[in-house]
């Protein structure tokens, strides 16, 4: 994990249960006799998230509707720390903090996890976009309950198939954009991926209380799959980023599948990106990464941040 990640080592479960007593019902004993939770159960992961958000980030209210993506907090905050390092490299080694740093989260989801964590860790202001009005309604309720509606704005993307087009206004300027793209190409592929993950977690049973075949940590169609999968989604993002290059300092996206990286770098070279960064991340045995690109030369990036 990133050195600034608060979640190094094992979870302090007694502390987390104190922050969210509902987590206690989801504690289990491992074969080694230690306490843990059933990470294949979305209900357990949701209560763990509530405990982490309350104890470590001061977020006292967080809820998502049944069936929506329940993201693991440690991995999500790693992405934000990596982006903070990206800005620091252009700012003399000091991480820019405060609401003047504006971040666009493409696909904010009902969980609104990146804006909540980014605001808590760095004080950044966010715009979160989504095509799902129900997800935005839930995200808005979380923001309102935590008094964050003034620093985190939500926008619905009405132009299905577009990412920045139809969303960014002419006056918008963002230091960062971020995205956790849908990486499956179909519902069938998503379900197969979830079954593999569940087997790796040592539990192929459906989560407690579920009424449908389980997807890994839940998730709606637009959260988990899209036509062409991750590779197609990232090509569209790169193509659109060319159009909006003067309004964004650094574009970025998680890339779940390493086999997509060669084509991604090829597309970015073709698009004329001035700089491309590939940042590795790891949580336990899981290897991940994000790719960031800018159309601005180093001197222009430094000037932008100084402004």
TrEMBL record:
One of its GO terms (cellular component) is cytoplasm. InterPro entries: METTL16/RlmF, rRNA_lsu_MeTfrase_F, SAM-dependent_MTases_sf. SUPFAM superfamilies: S-adenosyl-L-methionine-dependent methyltransferases. It holds the Pfam family Methyltransf_10. Its main location: cytoplasm. Transmembrane segments: none annotated. Residues 185-215 are annotated as: Disordered. It is found in: Cytoplasm. Belongs to the methyltransferase superfamily. METTL16/RlmF family. NCBIfam families: PRK11727.1. This is Ribosomal RNA large subunit methyltransferase F. It comes from Stenotrophomonas pictorum JCM 9942.
């Amino acid at each position: 994990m990133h050195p600034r990640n608060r979640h190094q080592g094992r979870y302090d479960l007694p502390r987390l249960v104190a922050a969210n007593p509902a987590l206690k019902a989801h504690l289990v004993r491992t074969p080694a006799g230690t306490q843990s939770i059933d990470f294949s159960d979305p209900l357990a992961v949701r209560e763990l998230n509530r405990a982490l958000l309350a104890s470590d980030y001061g977020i006292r209210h967080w809820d998502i509707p049944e069936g929506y993506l329940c993201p693991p907090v440690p991995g999500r905050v790693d992405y934000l720390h990596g982006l903070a390092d990206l800005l620091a490299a252009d700012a003399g080694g000091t991480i820019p903090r405060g609401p003047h740093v504006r971040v666009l989260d493409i696909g904010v989801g009902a969980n609104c996890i990146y804006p909540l964590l980014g605001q808590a860790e760095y004080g950044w202001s966010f715009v979160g976009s989504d095509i799902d009005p129900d997800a935005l309604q839930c995200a808005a309720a979380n923001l309102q309950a935590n008094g964050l509606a003034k620093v985190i704005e939500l926008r619905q993307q009405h132009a299905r198939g577009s990412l920045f087009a139809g969303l960014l206004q002419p006056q918008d300027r963002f230091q960062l954009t971020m995205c956790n793209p849908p990486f499956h190409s179909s519902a069938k592929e998503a379900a197969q991926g979830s079954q593999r993950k569940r087997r790796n977690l040592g539990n192929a049973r459906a989560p407690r209380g579920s009424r449908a075949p389980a997807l890994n940590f839940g998730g709606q169609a637009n959260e988990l799959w899209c036509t062409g999968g991750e590779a197609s989604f990232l090509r569209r993002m790169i193509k659109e980023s060319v159009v909006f290059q003067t309004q964004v300092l650094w574009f970025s996206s998680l890339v779940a599948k390493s086999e997509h990286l060669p084509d991604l770098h090829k597309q970015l070279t073709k698009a004329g990106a001035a700089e491309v960064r590939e940042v590795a991340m790891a949580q336990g045995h899981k290897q991940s990464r994000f790719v960031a690109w800018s159309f601005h030369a180093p001197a222009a990036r430094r000037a932008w941040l100084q402004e």
